[in-house]
Specification:
heterodimer, A: mainly alpha, two-stranded antiparallel ribbon, 79% helix, B: mainly alpha, 21 helices, 4 strands
């Protein structure tokens, strides 16, 4: 495949990475650590929100992020014809 | 049946299963030995990765640690799961496309340098031995508590089992035993958690019960716990005590360290395709998350249960688990006010670990020689016992207690095997084949791999029996080194085509030396100075790997821009690993 196409594929990949890693950072570090104290004044069910993000919510989001990336990349691989077999 | 009979039965059955799998999956070639032939389905690899990753520490110690730390324990929960996002997005697919057997392979080839390869080998071996000693110790502890055999005997049995399937089956044997071990350990973790969640909140799912109401009072269980903590003078459970900057640095170091650990990375060499590497990291995190989202719930339930059971109870009437664990020295009680009741409040009962004297006190408790503190607290509880004692505290049936023993063993053995394989691959492949004797035959290399796995088992067992006093301290080392050396070298090798040998090696050496010096100073040279006031920017030795990583990246970038760019063929490698197409199976050349 020609070089320009591959550059474009790589650029798209980097775009996904930046978007998903920003969410990764926001959920764990911003909501779970930096803003944990103010968020703790919000109560959802029996949880204080900051505490919930630190001990539960961030982990669920991590799982969702990986599967989102997998499906985005599977589509991108096909689109640029760099998928296997 | 009593607990011991149940334990013999369940542990015996699980061991028979592991040995059966080992015989079925004997490795016939180096490729099978190093990367299970590269044909592991992604779901199975995810399960094996989860068992590989979750060690005796995750299974036995983590919930207990959180139970005593409250919110501050979150660093372990986020730190040991968030790293998988980095693995799936930044490392696993590209390293799979690269298609070699080991992390030192990548570092050596990408930076066209045998010195870089050797640095990577030494780090890999050091990190792995650090870890494996703790696992063998965990095996010994479980055996001695539940089967009442000598701790050393327990370690010998554990060594024999690991020897059998790691030496015989290599990665292939380890992978399929790890799948079985995951099933054993997650079942063993969840069953008591379900029971306890129902008992305390009426909701069988611990993740939901965690946010539910306590049956007894009808108030949210976390609110009840915060109330108990306030009443007894402990810090509030749901908010932190650690300074925020330290929490941040520790979490980053654990995440990045996780993504840089060689025994985790190597698991992604075993799947057939690049897209399998991505999705199997996702499956691995799903299987890990089941335990990691249950652990903080268990921590909370156990904490409430513990306080309700012991606080202000007469020693004579406490349940038998209390006295069993007191006999092992992991619980100690000093009746300061001579009222025969256990006062459990904030602060330490006495300094350091309990030192027991001969004889018993007025209520029948073991006497201590420790000097009491001025505080009102009379109770010492080792954090490690919370998960193991939890079923007894909640008065669950005997078979559940036995199951927890089998689960703890599965967690310890699966991690030990993965680490031993990294050590044996590093010696046989990265040192002997790649450096000392490149013309070694396939059979000879396989033989060398088996012998080094065998030797590594024996050394690990030795450290398990004679644990160096510094095992707990060096865990910070393992993560710090992985974060400050491997992670930047690999990431820059993939994402920065201009990165060259000079830059990467400067960065790795600087990262390692800086991180090691900081940890050695505060943990070994001058432990008395290990207080927040002396830390740089308020970063504890546990979190310093993050700063080491930043230094590594900055130094690598600066030096690489001042030195010649990497050779043409290396730039082609970098281009090639960015696209999935044409990922052949892992090759030795």
């Amino acid at each position: 495949m020609e070089n320009g196409k591959l550059k474009e594929y790589w650029k798209n990949n980097l775009k996904y990475l930046i978007a998903l890693l920003s969410i990764w950072f926001f959920v764990s570090y911003v909501l779970g650590i930096f803003l944990a104290d103010p968020l703790n004044s919000i109560q959802i069910g029996g949880f204080k929100l900051g505490f919930w993000f630190a001990q539960q919510g961030s982990i669920y989001v991590f799982v969702a992020l990986i599967f989102t990336y997998v499906s985005l990349m599977n589509k991108l691989d096909k689109e640029y014809d760099v998928h296997e077999d | 049946m009593d607990v011991q009979a149940w334990t013999f039965l369940i542990v015996g059955l699980s061991f028979a299963l592991y040995i059966g799998i080992a015989i079925w999956s004997k490795a016939g070639s180096t490729k099978e030995f190093y990367v299970a032939g590269g044909g592991v389905p992604p779901l199975a690899n995810g399960m094996a990765t989860a068992a590989d990753w979750m060690s005796a520490a995750s299974f036995i110690s983590m919930a207990g640690l959180i139970s005593f730390l409250g919110y501050d324990g979150s660093v372990y929960l986020m730190g040991w799961t968030g790293g998988y996002v980095l693995l799936a997005l930044l490392l696993a697919p590209y390293l799979r496309k690269f298609g070699k057997f080991t992390v030192p392979d990548f570092v050596g080839d990408r930076y066209y340098s045998d010195i870089a390869r050797t640095i990577a080998v030494i780090c890999a071996i050091f990190v792995s031995f650090t870890y494996v000693a703790g696992q063998m110790r965990g095996v010994g502890v479980v055996f001695s508590r539940f089967l009442e055999v000598d701790i050393n005997m327990g370690i010998f049995i554990g060594m024999a089992i690991v020897f059998f399937y790691a030496v015989l089956g290599g990665m292939k044997g380890i992978t399929y035993t790890q799948v079985a071990q995951y099933c054993v350990l997650i079942f063993a973790y969840m069953v008591p958690a379900f029971f306890i969640s129902i008992q305390m909140t009426g909701n069988p799912i611990p993740q939901l019960g965690f946010g539910g109401n306590e049956l007894e009072s009808g108030r949210p269980i976390l609110e009840v716990l915060d109330g108990l903590h306030k009443e007894l003078g402990f810090a509030e459970y749901t908010s932190g005590k650690k300074p925020m900057v330290d929490v941040f640095f520790i979490t980053v170091a654990l995440m990045v360290g996780t993504a840089g650990l060689p025994h985790v990375i190597v698991r992604f060499f075993t799947v057939p395709k690049v897209r399998d590497a991505r999705v199997s990291a996702g499956w691995a995190l799903v299987f890990i998350a089941i335990l990691y989202t249950t652990a903080p719930a268990v921590a909370t339930f156990a904490r409430v249960n513990l306080i309700n059971t012991v606080s202000n109870s007469a020693y004579e009437s406490v349940p038998s688990w209390f006295k069993n664990w007191e006999n092992t020295g992991l619980i100690a009680w000093q009746d300061k006010n001579q009222d025969g009741k256990i006062q459990y409040t904030g602060g330490k009962a006495f300094a350091g670990k309990p030192k027991f004297a001969e004889g018993r006190g007025q209520s029948g408790e073991r006497l201590l020689t420790n000097k009491a503190t001025d505080g009102t607290n009379e109770l010492y509880i080792d954090r490690d016992i919370m998960v193991l004692a939890n079923p007894e505290i909640a008065q669950l049936p005997n078979w559940v207690i036995a199951l927890v023993a089998a689960g703890g063993l599965a967690a310890a053995l699966s991690t030990a095997a993965g680490l031993l394989l990294v050590i044996s691959t590093s010696v046989a492949h990265d040192l002997i084949k790649k450096q000392f004797k490149p013309d070694i035959s396939e059979g000879g290399e396989l033989w060398a791999a088996r012998v080094s796995a065998g030797v590594a088992v024996v050394i690990a067992g030795y450290f398990g029996i004679n644990p160096p006093g510094f095992v707990a301290q060096v865990v910070a080392f393992a993560f710090g080194l992985a974060a400050s050396s491997f992670f930047p070298a690999i990431i820059l090798g993939i994402f920065d085509k201009r990165m060259n040998r000079e830059g990467a090696m400067t960065g790795m050496v600087l990262g390692i030396v800086f991180t090691a010096a900081y940890i050695i100073y505060f943990k070994f040279v001058n432990p008395a100075a290990n207080v927040p006031a002396n830390w740089w920017f308020g970063i504890s030795p546990e979190g310093i790997g993050t700063l080491g990583m930043i230094l590594n990246i900055v130094a690598s970038l600066v030096v690489s821009r001042m030195t010649p760019e990497p050779p043409e063929e290396v730039q082609h490698i970098v281009e090639d690993i960015r696209f999935p197409k044409g990922a052949g199976s892992a090759t030795a050349h």
